[in-house]
Fold this sequence. Notes:
mainly alpha
Amino acid sequence: CRPALDCEMDADAELQPTLLGQIAELTLLTLFVAVPLLLGCRKSVASWLKESSPFYLEGIQRDSPPGLSLAKLPHTAAYDLGATGILVGSQHLVGIFLCLPEVTRKVSKSWSAALIRHAALLGAAVGLVHVALALYSRKDAENGPKNMPLAVMVFIAGLHSLSIVTCIPMNLHYSTEYAYVLNVFGFHLSGFAANFLSPLAWTYDDSYLPSLPFLWLISSFDVVIAALVRGPLLLWSIVMLKRLWYLEGAWLMLLSGTLGTALTLPVTGILLMASLSRFRSLLGRAQIKDD
């Protein structure tokens, strides 16, 4: 048994994260995954949205989250927003599957903890490029504020802020903490609903009867995520992480985490209200159809 135990301990040691390794992986994911994904595929996805759904612009007006006024976006900017969201949401789906082994753990394994670190870095890399694209869209003095209103830019920054500022230090020191595991998992699950399901719902006409089952399915899944992940799970994981940082005297982590939380929580509240509003609206539509 001893040689097998020694081999397992050696394997665990090899999987321990290092600062250089985390920075290198974040850089590689940014350059070779996030940039090609968001820059290389955005135009084709935007064209697909434009060609496949004549209802998209009405859908974005119907489901615009409170305070964002997405209906006022120029048409090109509206399609770019949806296309970027779908691409960001697709990597969140990958992140969800990376998180599952550690989320469902009985005992944390080195390989499953490594998958959590990969999922966190993937989300941060795509988040960095997503925020950079928003800033770039706004830099045009004449059309920038129209294409990327300040409220939308802050919203996008809030989606990724906690992940970006905490992923490397958390991966180095706390990647097996279950509160962090659930935080990363919840980030990807909520991000998938916000970035992928919402643009998908915008393509369906809620006044067209055959579209309603798809809208009900999307909205039901979204509202479950909103009620569980954007509520109790997010709050519990943030409180537990802040408690951990405080007890261990990790003041820099506590400060950066608090700054990230200050942007994340309002965005989470906006997404929660948008999900509940769409769900109530579709319930009303169901009653109308029954009548």
